[in-house]
Task: inverse folding
């Protein structure tokens, strides 16, 4: 019995460390912060980079290495799935269409899932609201695809292997929409998957 | 085989320890990470004054998640010895600025709409200098935005909207002309 005690203690400490660090690591692996707001396929974290951010969201943000927009700058909304919930992939053709929120300026970009840019080469991976043509009803109509498409086309093939995960980021600049009430009155465009190559 | 009482006590102790380790890990990650936003910005902000961030050709940007249509400038500075003056001018494009501290929190941010004629004149002071300024206001402060920070070590990130190559060249020139430096003589006027 006396021999078992230090061994048991050792096991206890090791297990405690293992479970503690392991569970902390697991919590920071998931991309979506706890306080995120969902608008269809789009996810916003208005608390990112503020004193109101919870410790888990802070730790997650530290892992991504990103610099969130300040409240005096704007707000980013990230879509990792289409409007049906399927993960966005670089080998599929998506249509981003619908009404866009009010902001003095906004941009839409296609990026690798970890936020790294897709190698642009000659191709465009982002558009700004001042350069966008609008449909008759003022709505947006952008195609995201690995091969050239008619209309406004964002190239998604600049990443790694075909079929790698991508994300769409809409960044709204000079917008008061960081409060929950303002965000829930927002309408974000739908992301529909047309076909995969 | 240890008794059931010892076993459950051991289990409880393990979970308690795990809980403490878990909380400590979560809280310490932002401060000790060397791949978080702050650390990456600190690595990139090599110049005295503003460092422009060059858009990478490959897919390995120094800082992920930056808007591809923007040109960025970084400035790391300390206000422990003296206030810092940040000045910048770009009248014809959208721009925004954010001040980050070591924990990745944005201490202050603004965009060109708040600035006069799209020009920024900002004084960043620590709490001590803020008190001194309140007691003896200075004439030079006309038109300056004064930001008080509890943290001495800050990184300013300037974002300029530059969707076309011509815009990018102009924005790079605007960053090159911008100032970001401590002003040790400021308080003595």
Result:
């Amino acid at each position: 019995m006396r021999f078992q005690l230090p061994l048991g203690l050792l096991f206890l400490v090791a297990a405690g460390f293992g479970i503690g660090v392991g569970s902390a690591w697991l919590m920071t692996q998931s991309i979506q912060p706890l306080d995120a707001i969902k608008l269809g396929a789009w996810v916003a974290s208005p608390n990112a980079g503020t004193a109101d951010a919870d410790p888990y969201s802070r730790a997650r943000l530290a892992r991504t290495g990103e610099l969130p927009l300040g409240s005096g700058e704007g707000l980013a909304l990230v879509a990792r799935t289409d409007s049906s919930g399927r993960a966005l992939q670089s080998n599929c053709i998506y249509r981003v269409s619908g009404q866009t929120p009010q902001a003095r300026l906004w941009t839409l970009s296609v990026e690798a899932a970890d936020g790294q840019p897709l190698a642009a080469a000659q191709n465009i991976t982002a558009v700004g609201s001042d350069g966008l043509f609008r449909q008759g009803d003022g709505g947006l109509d952008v195609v995201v695809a690995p091969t050239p498409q008619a209309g406004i086309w964002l190239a998604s093939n600049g990443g790694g292997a075909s079929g790698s995960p991508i994300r769409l980021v809409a960044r709204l600049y000079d917008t008061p929409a960081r409060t929950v009430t303002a965000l829930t009155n927002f309408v974000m465009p739908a992301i529909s998957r047309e076909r995969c190559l | 085989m240890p008794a059931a009482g010892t076993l459950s006590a051991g289990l409880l102790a393990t979970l308690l320890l795990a809980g403490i380790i878990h909380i400590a890990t979560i809280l310490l990650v932002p401060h000790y990470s060397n791949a978080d936003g702050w650390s990456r910005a600190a690595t990139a902000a090599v110049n005295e004054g503003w460092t422009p961030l060059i858009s990478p050709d490959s897919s390995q940007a120094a800082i992920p998640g930056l808007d591809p249509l923007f040109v960025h400038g970084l400035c790391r500075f300390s206000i422990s010895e003296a206030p810092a003056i940040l000045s910048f001018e770009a009248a014809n494009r959208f721009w925004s600025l954010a001040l980050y501290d070591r924990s990745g929190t944005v201490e202050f941010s603004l965009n060109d709409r708040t600035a006069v004629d799209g020009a920024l004149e900002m004084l960043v002071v620590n709490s001590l200098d803020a008190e001194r300024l309140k007691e003896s206001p200075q004439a030079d402060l006309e038109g300056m935005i004064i930001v008080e920070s509890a943290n001495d070590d800050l990184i300013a990130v300037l974002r300029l909207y530059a969707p076309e190559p011509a815009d990018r060249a102009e924005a790079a020139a605007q960053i090159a002309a911008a100032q970001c430096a401590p002003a040790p003589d400021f308080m003595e006027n």
Remarks:
- Chain A has three helices and ten strands.
- The helical segments of chain A are 4-29, 55-64, 180-184.
- Residues 4-29 of chain A form the longest helix (26 residues).
